[in-house]
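Per-record layout

source: Candidatus Aphodoplasma excrementigallinarum
name: Amidohydrolase
length: 508
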Amino acid sequence: MGKRVFLAKNIITMVQETEPEAILCVDGRIAAVGKRKDILSHAGQRTEVIDFRDATILPGFIDPHSHICACANRLALADLSPAKSFDELIALLRQYKEQHSIPAGKWMIGFGYDNNFLKERKHPDCHVLDKASKENPILITHVSGHMGALNSLAMQEAGVSGNGYLEESEFMQVSAHVPAPSEEEMQKLMQLAQQEYLKYGITTAQEGIAREKEVELLKRTRLKLDVVGYVDLKQAKSAFDHCGAYKKQYKNHLRFGGYKIFLDGSPQGRTAWLSKPYEGESEYAGYGTYADEEVTQFFETALREQVQILAHCNGDAACEQFIRCLRAAREHTGLAVTNRPVMIHAQLVTRPQLAALKELGGIASFFNAHTYYWGGVHEKNLGRRAQTISPLHTAQEIGVCYTLHQDAPVIKPDMLFSVWCAVTRQTRAGKVLGADERIGVYDALKAITANAAYQYFEEKHKGTIEPGKLCDLAVLDKNPLTARTEQLRDIRVLATVKEGEILCQNKA
């Protein structure tokens, strides 16, 4: 690989106030950072020099939570995100069938509809989907990934009764058995998915719910960026047991970091587990996935094996269960919590819960773009509680480590959009939702670089630009620290560098 020098007008190292002008990369790692003249003199004449001129270089962005295999798979599905009504949804499915010449009897799968933005303001059912096709089994997935619907033929093949609408565990069990693309097609889709991540400056990605199928797919994939996988502890623990050489360190850019569990659903789907009822309900407050005893056992398993565990919890009742059961596991095992357990999404986590999370050595990873995408929906579902979703400023005040993620394919893996959301907390309608929970640009950038590296136990190798670390870089067309607030969402990634190699260059 040899030597390379990277130059740019601005280099934000995330570790020091002064901005250097050059980075020396030797065999994939940063050897020196400093003034242009000094670095070029130190590098020698045979060193390749890459000048990004007026651009700004940051550490490569680190994705704290997403589903890269699902992102790949989604590329083969009918995109239902444009649908604004049942009629439009039906038309998109029919168009997909025609464009892909899908024969009778073959499954049709769609992703991305959102009942909150359909004219009917409800989920489609089998009667709606039968209008798209009665000769093909159809399954469609809500944008959250937590619910969906089947047509009559799909219900028959899956052995499902009712009206075709399913949510949470019932839906996931059915969708897990739907025919997947061929191995050859999935490998092509995985390459495309990696390019999508690289396009947004991401050099480390995640597979946040791996079962046997995803584990084997990742092992066979030619990875360009680093991927950390988390295995479904409830459904596929044995898959993690067989990860062998992929557990402690990267092998061919792949590492399995631990386990994933679900403690509740989604707030926009009204399945997140709350301590008080949803607006307009006298009793319904969502629901948990498991009883305390089982959740405690999950945490005990992770503590005894000394591996990390990620727990999906959106509602404050689910966050409380996380705290309660982690404490119980610590008491039962007598082991210190050193595995940095992560509270994934943490939409309605409270101040006392964040303080408890800090005491336990845990991390909060926020899906903070909820303020934009579903801010209005949360106001309808949660009332005043919507003001404190993704409480980043509170987390900062308390001093708990936090990161920002996009949960792709729920939304695009656009890290800089999450930064804009953290700084502005604007909804689709332009309203500021919970101004007190806004944070500064630098702190938001830290949440997708240095903090994210810490979440992965990789702070010695990634997250900042300093000697000894991997030369993973994101090259931007503007400096986010000096850009106007309204410009943050429009900053573009010009190039992505992984271990000194330019893997993606976007047109200026």
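summary: The first strand starts at residue 3 and ends at 7. The two ends are 27 Å apart (CA to CA).
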